[in-house]
Design brief:
CATH class: Alpha Beta
Largest sheet: 4 strands, antiparallel
Number of helices: 3
Shape: globular
Strand content: 35-45%
Strand order of the largest sheet: 1-2-3-4
Helix content: 10-25%
Distance between the termini: 32 Å
CATH topology: Nuclear Transport Factor 2, Chain: A
Number of domains: 1
Radius of gyration: 14 Å
């Protein structure tokens, strides 16, 4: 992905100024929503290492396998609960739109985030109908 192109998370900033520094480990996500957006971006650009690193250590899988044929189109943040710079926990509800096997689909999830060693980490999520 071109560093100057729009970030896949659709926050409105160039990739290099938005999620790329988080994916490269140059800075932590300041909020739970920022971590959610960066994780979506990792799916969109195919960065399983970042997904694994941003998972809470108590739930982190040994590997993350991405489907190379799955294409992520856009992310909608439905709501956030806590998860700010001074919080220790947060919830982000989102809908991620994608195409797989030639069919459009979406993933609607309510995700929980917690701070681990001062940085936001993805704890788990519940897929919504």
């Amino acid at each position: 992905m071109a560093e100057s192109s729009a970030c896949p998370c659709r926050r409105g900033e160039p990739f290099d100024e938005c999620c790329a520094p988080l994916l490269r480990g140059e800075r932590p996500a300041p909020t739970a929503e920022a971590l959610m957006r960066s994780r979506y971006t990792a799916f969109a650009v195919g960065d399983p290492d970042y997904l694994r690193r941003s998972w809470h250590s108590s739930r982190r899988p040994s590997t993350v396998d991405l489907d190379p044929d799955q294409r992520w189109f856009f992310l909608e943040i439905v709501r956030t609960e806590s998860g700010g710079p001074f919080d220790d926990t947060g919830i982000v509800e989102f809908v991620a739109h994608y195409r797989s096997a030639g069919k459009r689909s979406s993933l609607h999830e309510v995700s929980r985030f917690v701070r681990e060693d001062g940085a936001w980490a993805y704890l788990d999520g519940v897929i919504q109908p």
